[in-house]
Design goal:
alpha+beta; five-stranded antiparallel sheet; 24% helix
Length: 96
């Protein structure tokens, strides 16, 4: 599984992106951790996209709950920059 990290405007901690089974999974936030995490999860879930898969692929900061990941389908052979653009557009994320 390929992975890389992205920085987001207004987010203190970078997030991991994992490529798995034709999807790019974005590390959203830890469920139940704090109001900021809750708002980030609510944002992702409010998009109402049928093509987004939600998963629990791993917890970087295991404290209060599982980390939610949101995955979007990607075409084979996309560059890292192209994957970032897809995440930015489809998940409405402020990725730098």
């Amino acid at each position: 599984m390929e992975s890389f990290y992205v920085s987001l405007s207004g987010w203190q901690t970078g997030r991991e992106v994992k490529i798995q089974n034709g999807y790019a999974y974005f590390e959203v936030a830890e469920e139940g951790h704090c109001s900021i995490c809750r708002s980030r999860i609510a944002h992702i879930r409010s998009l109402g996209r049928d093509d987004v898969r939600y998963a629990y692929l791993g917890n970087r900061y295991p404290s209060d709950g599982s980390t939610l990941w949101a995955g979007i389908p990607i075409s084979e052979g996309l560059s890292q920059a192209e994957i970032i653009n897809e995440l930015r557009e489809k998940l409405k994320l402020p990725i730098r």
